[in-house]
Structure formats: structure tokens, C-alpha cells
Amino acid sequence: LGSTAASANNSTSLIVCEMQSSMSYACRPNYLGDCYIREPNDTGFFCFRAIESIRQHFYEPQDRDTDKPSWERLRNSLRIDRSWIDALTKSYEAGNQRHGKSPYMSGENRVSAMLHTWKVVDRFCLYLDNGAVQLAEEIEELRLN
Questions:
Q1: Residue 14: which of 5, 1, 2 has the closest Cα?
Q2: Tens place of pLDDT per residue across the chain (145 aa)
């Protein structure tokens, strides 16, 4: 597990986290940005896939063929209410895109989906930077009203 914070030329922070596990994660804006910006029709799909990839970190062998326990661990560890993640499936129709449908997303909805996803990715990076320990209660839970 390694974490690096670097400063870009325009003084904005760039967090790069890497984790060695059954999967390798790279929380890099260019990595995700390439996926959901280059293919506008697939934004919802790539946003949800980014979160599903993070969920894999929380998978444990005793989960076997069910993903419910790993979703619960993700939400508890990152302080994210289920409504926050469900919004990507319902509002952005990411679930339908997984099954071959190609729904229209307005530019406004695309930006919302990307920002929504980045809040989850940012929390995962904080979680890893903190030694893979549940985020503190002082960090407000992500929740839709």
C-alpha cells in the first residue's frame, strides 16, 4: 500500500493511491476521466464501474457469490449511505447500460455523475491513506436528501 500526494503545475492537488491486492487500483483523475469523458454515452456505466471496482477491495472470501456484504463494508468504511450509490444506478441508468442499453445523459447529468463518483473515489483514497481504517465520524456521511 502506498499513497502519494503531488502538486500539479496549476497548484491543484493530485492524489495518487495505489493498492496491491487481488486488483490494482490507481485513483488518478486522468484514468477515470479518460473513460467517462471520451465516451459520453457511457458516462453512467463508467462511473458505476469505478465504484464497483472500489467495492472489490471490500470483498472477503466468505462472501462467495454475493456482493451484499462487500457493499455494506464499503458504505460503512467510507461513510456513504446506500442512497448515494443507488443514485448512480437509478438516476444515471448505469444499471441499464450494463445490459447493453445506451440511454441519453445530458451534459448536466454527466457532470453530476462524475462529481458524484469522484466523492466516492476521494473517500476511498482517504481510507487507504489512513491505513484502510474506517473514516472518522467527523467526516459527514454522503447521503442524498
A1: 5
A2: 333 333 222 222 233 333 333 333 444 444 455 555 677 777 887 888 889 999 999 999 999 889 999 999 999 999 999 999 988 777 665 556 556 666 677 888 888 888 989 999 999 999 999 999 999 999 999 998 7
Output the pTM of the full model.
0.71
Burial class of residue 8, CB neighbours in 10 A (0-12, 13-18, 19+): exposed
**Unique residue bearing C-alpha cell 503545475:** 9
| Spatial separation of the C-alpha atoms in residues 33 and 8, rounded to whole Å | 16
